[in-house]
Amino acid sequence: MATLESLQAKIQRLQAQADALLAKKSSAVIAKIKNLMEEHGLTTADIDAHAGGKKSAKAGNYVRGPQPALYRDAKSAATWSGRGRAPAWIAQAKDRGRFLIDGVSAADRKPVVKNPVANKAVVKKGPTAKKTAVNKAAGAKVPTKNAAAKKAPR
């Protein structure tokens, strides 16, 4: 049976062989990359420019994730980015401009482009759909089936 020391020595020899093999393969890959770069006239700066750096989570022009604070409460020093539900200290304020952090204006923020399809009114399908849509557009009240049923005597 092998002893612990002999097994550890064997592991060290195998690890050294693995490191040497890895270094040989990586040097071959690096040489191939250098040849390709010279062949196409590229530099590392070209690679960095095309890599794009850090990717940000974007959906359209709406940047996701934590945002810089735009508003600060003078009493508690609590901050708010202007997204999501407004905290209690600013929720009832008529003029939020007095809470703006110095150096940041609301005009500096990019507007959020909303989906134009979501803003369209939903028109029900059916025989009276055109009448209902026209009446709603004109501002007239349209009785519902429940209202008509309540008025009719039984």
TrEMBL record:
Main location: cytoplasm
Matching InterPro entries: H-NS_C_dom
Region (Disordered) residue spans: 127-154
Keywords: Cytoplasm, DNA-binding
Localization per record: Cytoplasm, Nucleoid
Keyword DNA-binding (UniProt): yes
Family: Belongs to the histone-like protein H-NS family.
Name of this chain's protein: H-NS family nucleoid-associated regulatory protein
Organism from which the protein derives: Paraburkholderia strydomiana
